[in-house]
Design a protein that fits this description.
The chain is mainly alpha-helical and 136 residues long. Helices cover 58% and strands 0% of the residues. The chain has one domain.
Length: 136
Amino acid sequence: MRPRHLIRLTHTAQIISECWNAAERGIRLAVRQRHWGPSEEDITFLLRGELRNAVAKATKKGVFERAFVMDLQLACRGAADSSRLRDLASGLVGTVSFHNRRHEGKSSASDIGMGRLWLVRYLLSSSSPVARAGPS
């Protein structure tokens, strides 16, 4: 089994928090201007859109990538070559996923759950089936 490394994602978590705060500000503005008296489901729907928008903006600006590099640099203080750390974080994107009503009613009783941050890096080589097939 490969060793697992735990890294404190202080800077990355701060970006997530900032996106959340931006989403809440967007909801307050939308309710004040256009969506008077929203139900709980309406607010969840608005939050989903505002949060996705805030995360997409941060991703486009490279904010997640830079924050993750800072977290890696803190975790790997002895690393002589920080360009390798930047390479690891290159292209990092943030996404938002909400669970469905069935999960809420059966498993959690909450609209939103934040339990995991997944970092996946796909490695392709010329012998990979995806690389051989080419773009679709």
